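The material for today's practical consists of a large collection of protein records. There is nothing in a record beyond a sequence line and a structure line. Backbone structure tokens are a discrete shorthand for how the chain folds in space. Nothing more is needed to start thinking about how sequence determines fold. As an example, a complete record with its sequence and its structure tokens follows.
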Amino acid sequence: MSTTAERRESERAPVARAAWASRESSFERIDLNEEMKHRSADKGKKVKAVRVFLQKLCPDRVLRLSAQTDAHLDHPEVTAVPGPSAAPELLCLPGQVCEDPEIREPTLRPDPSALSLAHNVRKRRAVCVFFRRACECVKQLFPCCDPDRVQPPKAEPDLDRPQLVLPEQDLQSSPEEEAPSEIQPHDAVLSGPVSGPVVSPVVSPVSSSVSIGSETAPDTVLPDPEIQLPQGSIVSLFEVGHLIASGNFSKVYEGTHIFSDNVKVALKCVPKRRADRYLDIPGHSRPVLAEVALMLRLGEAPSCPNITELHQWLEDESSFTLIMEYPEPCRTLEDYVLFSGPVSEAQARLFMLQVLQAVKHCHERGVYHGDIRSRNILVTLHSLELKLIDFRCARLISSEGFDSSQYQGSDAYTPPEVLGQSIFHAAAADVWALAVLLFEIIHRYLPFESFDAIQHGYVRMDPTLSTACHDLIFHCLSRNPAHRLTLQQLEEHRWMKA
């Protein structure tokens, strides 16, 4: 009976919560709060309760525990362990399913904003590396893009075109030598002495902007320094707009009148160079830039509607600014031919009549344009009216002619006498240039692709063209300037009057 009473009493007594669970369903876990409430209970009762508990688990082995006080902690050999209290080592008893508790340290989660910043930094570095490598590849493929490799060209007038000048040829030949024995309908053999085998140029849509040789004139020096007009600045009651065209010698901007948006002009900024030419004109106390002086001469009444008009010009310490007529909307004849589809003979005749009037007006005023080509002609889109522009290469016509080394026009329009003789004349050179221009308007490509073709080759023309058009081009592209048509004969040709 005493054993049964003690057992009941021990069941009522609080039992310390263990780290493991009993397999017997009759035992219930004691809440930790109840353990804290009964701390002041008798230690002897606790020992009895533990003994009864262990007897139920292991009836064969009884472990007798004795109460232990904290007096042993006062012993001098016992030293406290510094730092936080260590977790007690758990003891697994027989029949107990024991699991080692994992002491998990709190995991540190990085800040999402820090991760995003690091990702952006890595991405930015990768992009920089990519573009750096791309620039290095481009510099290797195109050395001209590397400023460390390419040096600015030096002005050497005597070394620019010596390889283009060939020995003088006797261009005075008999008509029997000029007339070809057999002429196919689509081939035009240029008249004049031809030495060596006939070379057939490859037909390709090449615009006049693609030069055969060097486009820089031999007696010119590249502008130094480069001058430009800031966009939005005011130049003589005109606000500077977007850039229209840019070349080696000038930049052209669109200008809008500050009091009327409908008034448009072209603002041409020309930097001063050591090779600039100046002319004396009436009404000015000192010489004027040749381009300005010749445009003023051409603008005197009666003027020609097919030549751009110079409204005003300004000069400062480093540049000239030309305020000129700007028809809008417009585009160059070169762009019009390339992007507006095939041009009929009727429309080509309309264009040639206007260009011919502009060239005749220049000759009547004693001016040689010097660079007639499709890029230097503007086409007003709504009326198809042409304007001859860019008089940078213009000169006063001389009866003695010009030195061939001073030719500054486009290489694709170069007359053969410039390549084979020491002197060329303005009228014959302009007739040759007009024939090349007519060929380009109709065929949409240039007749010659090399200087050798200009001197010795022949041109292949569209067989669908009229006989009059073939005849006009044939007689204007005669290699002997004495046998070419004059400007007056060109105007009176039957194709021009059709």
The longest helix spans residues 112-141. Residues 184-491 form a domain with the Transferase(Phosphotransferase); domain 1 fold (CATH 1.10.510.10). The chain has a mean pLDDT of 74. The longest strand covers residues 260-271.
